[in-house]
Each structure stands twice: as C-alpha cells, then as structure tokens.
Write a structure and sequence with these properties.
By secondary structure, the protein is mainly alpha-helical. Helix content is 46%, strand content 5%. It starts with a helix and ends with a helix. Bound molecules: 20-OXO-protoporphyrin IX containing ZN(II) (ZEM).
Length: 303
C-alpha cells in the first residue's frame, strides 16, 4: 500500500547526521543511572524493542517497529504493552537531545544496546525507521503473544501462530524466548510475579538451563498467602518463575530440542539470538540497497 511505502522511506538526510556513538553513550548512562538502582532499565528496554516489532504481520505487511506506533491508541493500551510507557518515558529525553533520530530507531537501538551492555551478543543495527505522523497505521491490538493462551493443550500452537505470522520458525521462536534470562514479571503490569533467573540483568543461556534442570510446579503461595494470580510455575525455592508459554517450550518435542541445544551451548544461543533479534526488529522496515550507513555505524559504534 502507499502508506507502507511512505512509511518505509529512509530519512537519508537525517540519519546521516546522527552521532550514533553519542546516542549509545547516553543510553549507557541511562542503563547505569542510580535512579533505577532497584530495577535497572535494561530488561524493560529490551521488552519495548520486542513489543514494538512483534506486531508485524507478514501477510498484510502491517505492524512492526517502523512508525513507532506504540505512541498511539489502541496500541498503547494493549494489555500486552502494560508498563511499557515506563520505557518510552525513559527514552524521551534522549529523543529530545537527538531530534534527527527517529523514535522508531531509538526504541530498537536502545534494546540492542541494552542486550550488548548486559553481556549479550553484538547485534547488527541499521537505522532507517521513520515515525508515523498519526494513528492511521497503528496495528490492531491482540497481535502479541498471550502467556497462557490455550492452556493446557494449545499453548504451543498459539506460539507457532503468533511467531509464524511474523515469519519465524521453531528454532527462532526458542532462541528469541531466551530473552527471558532478563528481567521479571510485575503483578501490576502483567499479573505475573517474579524473575526467570537469579541474574536478571545478565544476558546468558541461564533461562534454558533452568528450564531443563529445575523442577517446575504451579505456584500456590506468595509471601505466605495463597497465590491468587494467573497460573504460573515456580522452582522449588519459589524465587524463580516460568510462564505457561515458557513451560510449553519443554512440553513440545520440537521446541525442547532447541531448548536442550541452547542450554548446553551458549555460543550457539548468542549467535542464533543475534540473528533472530535483528530479523525481528527489521520486520516491515526497508533499508537502502547500499549499506554504507551500516558500515559506518559498525566503525562508529563498535569501534
Ligand atoms: Zn517476554 N514477557 N514474552 N519476551 N519479556 C514478559 C517480560 C519480558 C511473553 C510474555 O507474556 C511476557 C519474549 C516473548 C514472550 C522480555 C522479552 C521477550 C512478561 C512480564 C510477560 C508476561 C511483563 C511484566 O509483568 O513486566 C510471551 C508470552 C512471550 C512469547 C511466547 C521475547 C521474544 C522477548 C525478546 C526477544 C523481557 C526482556 C521481559 C522483562 C521485562 C522487564 O520489565 O523486566
């Protein structure tokens, strides 16, 4: 559609003028800001980049990170995006400081930077996303995955439906899920509680190791009282959690095959994750044929 084409134009005049190294330094400052000592911003910035991208529909070529449409309703009010205004607000001063950076690029660049700074793989980043001027290209709500859709029998089907719509295969779905090494669930955002790992600001293959090695059972109590939240799983200490959609990855033979691979081989996980995350965050974005910008960026940002 003409809308899609208009939105995909590379703002050559603008992203050429961006000092990406300086933008990265400001994101790093945010990641380390004492103000957020209790809960560092890295994980929620990764979730923002993922949810900005995860609305893509390959059949209609709508949704995705281009446009930064999560600024608009109804996307901003999608239950799946609860709490992400926190991440968007954190990045607003950086957008103000660098007016030539599109918000759509900044949301992805912040996620990529956060992953790298938390010890993850380096991920190729290309600028070129533009900001939609209004709500006319906002995708409908309901395109992001539900943590307990179809329990107990069809959660795997739901995961395949959602990620298949974006164009991912089983292996990529499992690799991407490894981002749950990071961060935690917040009862006031998703209704779920707790972190997946004991090192929620370190990017690692710990999520897969824990999935394979711990005994996971439905959470019954919380802080001495009956757990009244949605079905989630806990390890024997009750300190760590898994969503029904995480447990689905060890209930399905094909998914589990990849969980086992990544639990044993962190290098393989890093490699596959980096490729899949780049693909995710570029869905629906068109870049210029000649990748001079990318080359320049690599030099600038990665040295
Ligand atoms: Zn998540 N995710 N996710 N995810 N996610 C949460 C938090 C985080 C699902 C899901 O329902 C939830 C991917 C896939 C899937 C991150 C990254 C990625 C939370 C908790 C839920 C409920 C939100 C809260 O309460 O704050 C489901 C069902 C998924 C697929 C089936 C993929 C893919 C991700 C990135 C590549 C991250 C980093 C967080 C932690 C956020 C934070 O604030 O700590």
């Amino acid at each position: 559609s003409s809308v899609g084409e208009a939105m995909c134009e590379l703002p050559k005049d603008k992203s050429d003028k961006v000092d990406w190294k300086a933008v990265r330094a400001d994101i790093c400052k945010l990641l380390e800001d004492d103000k957020y000592e209790k809960e560092p911003p890295g994980p929620v910035l990764v979730r923002l980049a993922w949810h900005a991208s995860g609305t893509y529909d390959s059949a209609t070529k709508t949704g995705g990170s281009n446009g930064a449409t999560m600024r608009f309703t109804p996307e901003s009010t999608d239950g799946a995006n609860a709490g992400l205004h926190i991440a968007r607000n954190m990045l607003a001063p950086i957008k103000d400081k660098y007016p030539n950076v599109s918000l759509a690029d900044l949301w992805i660049f912040a996620g990529v930077t956060a992953i790298e700074e938390m010890g993850g793989p380096s991920i190729e980043f290309r600028p070129g996303r533009t900001d939609a001027p209004d709500a006319s290209t906002v995708p409908p709500n309901g395109r992001l995955p539900d943590a307990d859709k179809g329990q107990p029998n069809s959660t795997c089907q739901h995961i395949r439906d959602i990620f298949g719509r974006m164009g991912f295969n089983d292996q990529e779905m499992v690799a991407l899920s490894g981002a749950h090494a990071l961060g935690r669930c917040h009862t006031d955002r998703s209704g779920y509680w707790g972190p997946w790992t004991r090192a929620p600001t370190t990017f690692s293959n710990e999520y897969f190791r824990l999935l394979m090695e711990e005994k996971w059972s439905p959470k019954k109590t919380h802080e001495g009282k009956k757990w009244t939240g949605p079905l989630q799983y806990e390890d024997p200490t009750g300190e760590l959690m898994m969503l029904p959609s995480d447990i689905a990855l060890i209930q399905d033979k094909e998914f589990k095959r990849w969980v086992e691979v990544y639990a044993k081989d962190e290098d393989r996980f890093f490699k596959d994750f980096a490729r899949a995350f780049k693909k995710l965050t570029e869905l629906g974005v068109s870049f210029p044929e000649d990748d001079n910008i990318l080359v320049k960026l690599k030099k600038l940002v990665l040295g």
